[in-house]
Write a structure and sequence with these properties.
Layout: H1 12-23, H2 30-41, H3 55-63, H4 68-88, E1 93-97, E2 100-106, H5 107-110, H6 120-135, E3 139-146, H7 153-173, E4 181-185, H8 198-204, E5 206-213, H9 215-224
Parallel strand pairs: 3-4
Antiparallel strand pairs: 1-2, 2-5, 3-5
Helix pairs in contact: 1-2, 2-4, 4-6, 4-9, 6-7
Length: about 230
């Protein structure tokens, strides 16, 4: 398992407001980065640059950021949960950024080729992730399905939706509240690899699970910062 850093840049007003802050982030912890980026960008979704995850996943984190000392409080909680997931979900790639976590599964871990039923190895991984979700109830979760570009746009969109829904349904079966879970299918529209190569297509076939603070955690964070 590996943890990956993502560089995030924003354009227009958000970029102008945050460029000096982001340029100094290399010397900061991820928690401090979350506070700095949230404060500089004002929690606004700009243009997102990253090769490890799709823009929908990154946008969910940046769009919900509160920044400042509250963002640092949330970041510390996310640090702890990310470490928990790294230790208990061996099939996942954990991407820790700002005020959230992206847990990425290559589709081959969760599904057989061209299928949307979760296979046994995938069930074990989702079950372990569901335990972390239950241990950290003050979060919301977005499950995003992705495909490569083989096949029609319409078919790939449907497959990505079915896979995201299957992950949600299995997490619910493991005791995660359905009210915390949302799904989205992006089909082939957010590649992170080169669809002209086998390796690139394999990278694009994935499920991303985004974990962010819910309103209760945000309120706690704001009170802790007062």
């Amino acid at each position: 398992m590996k943890t990956m850093n993502i560089k995030i840049a924003t354009l227009s007003v958000a970029f102008a407001a945050s460029s000096l802050v982001i340029s100094s982030c290399n010397s900061l912890t991820k928690t401090q980065k979350g506070a700095a980026i949230g404060a500089g960008a004002g929690g606004t979704v700009g243009a997102l640059i990253g090769k490890a995850a799709g823009n929908t996943a990154l946008g969910a984190i940046i769009g919900g950021a509160v920044g400042g000392t509250a963002g640092a409080f949330i970041g510390r909680k996310m640090d702890r949960q990310a470490a928990e997931i790294q230790n208990t979900v061996p099939g996942a790639t954990v991407i820790r950024q700002g005020e959230g976590i992206i847990v990425k599964f290559d589709s081959g871990i969760l599904f057989d080729f061209n299928k949307s039923d979760v296979k046994d190895a995938g069930k074990t991984n989702i079950s372990n992730l569901a335990t972390s979700m239950k241990n950290n109830p003050e979060t919301n979760i977005l499950i995003i399905g992705h495909t490569d570009d083989v096949g029609s746009d319409t078919y790939n969109q449907g497959l990505s939706e079915r896979r995201a829904n299957s992950v949600r349904d299995y997490a619910v079966a493991q005791g995660v509240s359905s009210a915390r879970l949302k799904t989205e299918g992006k089909g082939e529209s957010e590649p992170i690899g080169d669809n002209t190569t086998d390796a690139g297509r394999a990278a694009n076939r994935r499920v991303e699970i985004v974990i962010v603070a819910n309103d209760q955690m945000k309120e706690q964070a704001k009170q802790a910062g007062n």
